[in-house]
Design goal:
alpha/beta; L-arginine/glycine Amidinotransferase, Chain A; three-stranded mixed β-sheet; 21% helix; globular; hydrolase; amino acid binding
């Protein structure tokens, strides 16, 4: 199993921000937290590939937004923020080692953070970063492989996976106020409390669930639901609107 990551740019303080005020950001601390995140991936059997090709680009640590990686194919995204589109060419060569590669083209936009895969279904958030054209292009690319692509309205946060992620094939962790939950009918939904809304972004690692440190009620909720839970501190990266999923592309 491979986890593609990217080093933290020295320019991360100039990152794109949509829903958070800009705060001073400690680069050294952000890098230490990112290293701890990578260590968590390694503990769960992933070989971590760390790229440095886009270190001049402020948001480059958030590699999830550059591609959607599935068993059969990798789809290069066309990020909704124009400043982030320069990240994509640097990601292509590493993904070509593992998968055939397709891409989203103009005028479509698609951020990987808006794509939640559960089994053979991909839920795609229509957000400030992902448009309907990007969703339809993704659907056309993936239908031949047997995937369904379902649209989800996002209205209160940056990406779909800011508000909902999968703990397993049947269970979602969600903050429903930020998205339309109707497309997720039939799933068991564990709702995070309002004061821990950002905890809805969890990272499923084999049989464990990684939760951002500082959200004790969400951690307890997942343990009570039968999950093995680990925490990692990404408090400094969260100042750049980071979640746990956005700093890796998992190639399984």
């Amino acid at each position: 199993m491979i986890a593609v990551t990217h080093g933290v740019s020295p320019h991360i303080h100039r990152c794109e921000l949509t829903h958070r005020p800009r705060e001073p950001l400690d680069l050294d601390l952000a890098r230490r937290q990112h290293a701890a995140y990578q260590d968590a991936l390694r503990r769960h059997g992933f070989t971590v590939v760390e790229l440095t090709v886009n270190l001049d680009l402020p948001d480059s640590v958030f590699v999830e937004d550059t591609a959607v990686v599935l068993d059969e194919i990798a789809v290069l995204c066309r990020p909704g923020a124009p400043s982030r589109r320069k990240e994509v060419p640097g990601i292509r060569p590493v993904l070509e080692r593992y998968r055939p590669v397709a891409e989203i083209r103009a005028a479509g936009t698609l951020d990987g953070g808006d794509v939640l895969r559960v089994g053979k279904t991909l839920f795609v958030g229509l957000s400030s970063r992902t448009n309907l054209d990007g969703l339809e292009q993704l659907r056309a690319l993936l239908t031949p492989y047997g995937y369904q692509v379902k649209a989800v309205s996002v209205h209160g946060c940056l990406h779909l996976k800011t508000a909902v992620t999968a703990a397993d094939e049947d269970t979602l962790v969600a903050y429903p106020e930020w998205i339309d939950m109707e497309p997720f009918h039939g799933f068991r939904v564990l709702e995070v409390p309002k004061e821990e809304a950002e905890a809805a972004n969890v990272l499923r690692l084999n049989r464990s669930v990684l939760v951002a440190e500082g959200f004790p009620r969400t951690e307890k909720m997942l343990r009570d639901a039968g999950f093995s839970v680990e925490t990692v501190d990404i408090s400094e990266l969260r100042k750049a609107e980071a979640g746990l999923t956005c700093s890796s592309l998992l190639v399984t």
